[in-house]
Amino acid sequence: MFYRQSGVRHTSYISESRLFTIPADRAALWLVGLLGLAAPVLLDPLYIASYVLPWLVWTAAALGLNLIIGWAGQLHLGYAAVMAVGAYTAVHATRAGIPWELALPAAGLMSAVIGSIFAAAALRVKGLYLALTTLAMQFVMDWILSHVPAISGGTHASLQSPTLRLLGHAITSETGLYYVAFGWCVLVTVFMLNLRRTGLGRALVAVREKDYAAAVLGVNSFYYKIVAFAASSFIAGISGAILIATFYFLASPEQFTVNVSIQLLAMVIVGGLGSIIGSYFGVALILLMPGVSNGLFAWIVGLLDVRMSPETLAHVPNAVYGALIVGFLIIEPLGLGKIYANIRDYLLVWPFGYVKK
Question: Are 218 and 118 members of one domain?
Fold first, then answer.
């Protein structure tokens, strides 16, 4: 009833090109924004610090990866490597006395430079070959972090992150750290929402669909691939720095291994390629669902008084979690974002059955 396009009349191009033309979408956006601002008041501080804050930071990182995979159509298996570049750049910069206001952009720029160097391979290779190239970047970064003590301190060492300070104020409270992560996630989300309406966004989509056809139409595919890698790496660098400053509080090589790159790729695929809200859903499923499934399974076992070995208790929730991912992809191969879009499209014409197959 509330998802109606009746009464929405476009009298200008600006009106038609608005991000949210349906009033219900705008109302939902305001509601989610208010809930995000009020989250420290509504939720337990431990829950905020343990679940909501990392969810926001990883969502920002997943949106950056979705830019290169979902929008530009370029496979990337080394995203954790560029996050590591940003994290260590910010830590070393702040330890040298550079304020966080400059260290964060420096982290993004350094990641963009490193990511663009490896992105040069996108001119000659694509598909699985490009994926192997970015995977090589991940392995190179893993080796550097493990064998160059000047950067990471050594294989098993960790660098303590200086206290996050913005505008001269030290941010040490869980509420303050949450708002830093929330602000960064909002900035990345706004950028991604507006990207689809720009010439850059349309050029990236053209390159994704067919780079040769885009070149025939005058789109410099190599240039836009480099731009996509640079922008995506910039987001990754700042996300890695904020992750260290607000959640981990120290940087170590184990935090940015190839497993993290695969996990980020799973977040994007499960959420939906090219879907912004799908990135939120995908990160929530991959990051938060294991803990939820473990707690729920332990509660059910205790309620039914079923005796199980510790190994079974440890592995069955993971199997259920994996089955959930497979089930979601079977229901909708385009990801959780497409499931949300299907529900929304149905509500647009409910109670009529125009969208039924």
Answer: yes
DSSP 333: T
Phi, psi of 328, deg, nearest 5: -60, -40
| Alpha-carbon gap, residue 284 to 291, rounded angstroms | 11
Which tens digits make up the pLDDT trace of 54-110? Answer: 999 999 999 999 999 988 888 888 899 999 999 999 999 999 889 999 999 999 999
CA-CA distance, 188 to 203, in Å (whole number)?
19
Residue 148 and residue 229 in one domain:
yes
Q: For the stretch 286-297, what's the b/e string if a residue is b when 16 or more beta carbons lie within 10 angstroms of its beta carbon?
A: bbbbeeebbeeb
Q: Using an 8 Å Cβ cutoff, are 268 and 72 in contact?
A: no
- Does 354 fall in a domain? yes
243 contacts: CB under 8 Å, gap ≥ 6: 54, 57, 58, 61, 83, 87, 255
Residue type, 308: M
Whether residue 56 lies inside any domain: the answer is yes
Q: Give the SS3 label for residue 246.
A: helix
270, 325 Cβ separation under 8 angstroms: yes
Per-residue pLDDT reduced to its tens digit, 273-324: 888 999 999 999 888 877 777 777 777 777 777 777 777 666 776 677 677 7
CA distance 126 to 123: 8
Report d(CA 192, CA 228) in Å as an integer: 12
Judge whether 72 and 228 are in contact, CB under 8 Å.
yes
Residue finishing a domain among 257, 292, 315:
257
Cut 0.90: pTM above it:
no
Determine the structural domain holding residue 343 and report its residue range: 275-357
Q: Do 222 and 122 meet the contact criterion of CB atoms below 8 Å apart?
A: yes
**Number of domains comprising the chain:** 2
